[in-house]
Amino acid sequence: QPATGAWLGRLAERGQRGHGKQGRWQPGQSTVLAGGILLLGLGFGLTSLASTTWEYAACVAVWTCGEILTTTIGATVVAALAPPGLRGRYNGLFGLAFSLGYLIAPLAGTRLLAHGGPLLWLCCAGTCVVAAGWQLALGPAIRQREENAEGHSG
Predict the structure, then answer these.
(1) Longest alpha-carbon distance in the chain
(2) Is residue 36 within 8 Å of residue 67, measured between CB atoms?
(3) With contact defined as beta carbons under 8 Å apart, do 30 and 13 qualify?
(4) What is the DSSP letter of 68?
(5) Dihedral of the CA atoms 54, 60, 64, 66 (nearest 10)?
(6) What is the per-residue DSSP string for 81-136?
(7) pLDDT of residue 21
(8) Is the pTM of the predicted complex or chain greater than 0.85?
(9) How far apart are CA 114 and CA 3, in angstroms?
(10) pLDDT digits (tens, 9 = 90+) for 51-101
């Protein structure tokens, strides 16, 4: 498990832009973040099928890999979208979104759980698929802002 976490952390670190040294492709920040969100969704979706301790543990391992990717690069993406003088506010709102999630998720989750466990996990997976799509759609805007920032600083 630690080796997987180290590998994913390294991938997230390298997720700066499309190409690295020697022209090798490196995933951009939006691609890494969307991949992490999809891993979260995959782990959540698989949980709807799990029935043994080992199956649940495997699901948790999958979504933990997604968490590693999203937490290592999420704030970087938010900062890339923010105007330089507003990065603190943007990241503050990013943190607030998590706090709101911690408030809303138990309320919504228990209502979904009342209709059966699989529905809860499939809704979580579906939300992740939508969020990953939105993140990929933001990719060009993030790259454009980075290029504009580099052009003004260079």
Answers:
(1) 57
(2) yes
(3) no
(4) H
(5) 110
(6) HS-GGGHHHHHHHHHHHHHHHHHHHHHHHHHHHTT-HHHHHHHHHHHHHHHHHHHH
(7) 53
(8) no
(9) 38
(10) 999 999 999 999 999 998 898 888 888 887 788 899 999 999 999 998 999
